[in-house]
Write a structure and sequence with these properties.
Layout (H helix, E strand, L loop, with lengths): L11 H23 L7 H14 L3 E10 L2 E3 L16 E10 L2 E10 L5 H16 L7 H14 L3 E2 L4 E4 L10 E3 L14 E4 L2 E3 L7 E3 L5 E4 L8 H13 L5 E2 H8 L6 H7 L3 E4 L2 E3 L5 E3 L2 E4 L6 E2 L6
Antiparallel strand pairs: 1-3, 2-14, 3-4, 5-9, 6-7, 6-8, 8-16, 9-15, 10-14, 11-12, 11-13, 16-17
Helix pairs in contact: 1-2, 3-4
The chain binds manganese (II) ion (2 copies).
Length: 310
């Protein structure tokens, strides 16, 4: 069963499969989020969560992101990563799964100590109020306003350069965005639209935007190139076949290619065959919390596909 991305409405069977995927995904996400505490290895959590998605009969839509403290997004374990969860701070667990290209994308934040609990709550509140506005005919701006107002009225600040996004078949970021601050212009929501909504929240004294820091840990295929290098050729073939244009990470290729991989991925970015996504860090190094769910717009109201109760 493959969906036609140009079609607006899913049939009953596809809808049911999508809902089941969302339920399974949020069950895995919530149970791994509950197990996040100081000294647990990041590699264990991301690999365990990815394994659970596959055990459910689903594919990964992107590597599990586990981003700590001022790192807002796009951290995943690299081969041999010994990083552990700190004793104090905020952890974001962001996971993606798909079935025949039907993608769900959701994230939870965990406060490791009391002083960050409110920050996490505000991110969740912002998501809840945004989802209520996900009705056919509403403008994206109204959704952004709900996010912005919830965050600011609680005394916090949204991350202005991270956004929610439309999801289409095999396309995680399908162009139309849901900013966490209201902007002009206007896509109007329609029945059958699927969006990931993801408020990111920081403290009021923070700069309130993220910057890329360090080498990318997450990658996606950009275009085919000619190369004589055997490993480069192998990598490109493998990626095209297995991940299509969905994001992947070095850990996944390392299993097949081992140390021969070396810095092939960075080289392929330079040669414009791949896109690299470095970790995104709050510009003033302040703590960031995120909540995300994938939502289906229907005339009966929004369906929160990944909203399984924690
Ligand atoms: Mn996500
Ligand atoms: Mn997302």
């Amino acid at each position: 069963m493959a969906l036609d991305p140009t079609r607006i409405k899913m049939d009953e069977e596809e809808m049911e499969a999508y809902i089941k995927l969302g339920e399974y995904h949020s069950h895995v996400l919530n149970s791994f989020a509950r197990n996040i505490k100081g000294n647990v290895k990041v590699a264990e959590l991301v690999e365990g969560s990815e394994r659970s998605i596959k055990e459910g009969g689903y594919e990964l839509a992107f590597p599990t992101n586990l981003s700590i403290n001022e790192v807002a997004a796009h951290y995943t374990a690299y081969p041999g990563d010994e990083t552990s969860i700190p004793e104090s701070g905020v952890v974001k667990l962001d996971m993606g799964a798909h079935l025949n290209g039907m993608i769900v994308d959701a994230a939870r934040s965990i406060a490791l100590n009391e002083k960050y609990e409110e920050l996490v709550h505000v991110a969740k509140d912002a998501l809840d109020s945004a989802i209520k506005r996900m009705l056919p005919g509403n403008k994206i701006r109204e959704v952004s306003e709900a996010i912005y107002n919830t965050i600011v009225s609680a005394g916090y600040k949204p991350i202005q350069n991270l956004t929610g996004h439309k999801i289409e078949i095999y396309v995680l970021h399908a162009g139309t965005e849901i900013p966490n601050v209201p902007v002009r212009g206007g896509y109007r929501l329609k029945e059958g639209d699927i969006f990931a909504i993801e408020p990111f929240v920081t403290f009021p004294e923070a700069k309130g935007y993220v910057v890329p820091v360090g080498d990318p840990l997450i990658f996606s295929f950009r275009k085919k190139i000619r190369t004589r290098d055997e490993i480069e050729r192998k990598v490109i073939r493998l990626i095209e076949k297995k991940y299509n244009r969905l994001p992947f990470c070095e850990r996944w290729l390392f299993k097949e290619l081992g140390h021969r991989l070396n810095n092939t991925l960075l080289r392929l970015i330079e040669r414009r065959a791949l896109i690299g996504y470095p970790p995104l860090v709050e510009a003033s190094r302040k703590m960031v919390a995120q909540y995300e769910d994938t939502v289906l717009v229907t005339s009966d109201g929004p369906i929160r596909l990944t909203g399984g109760t924690p």
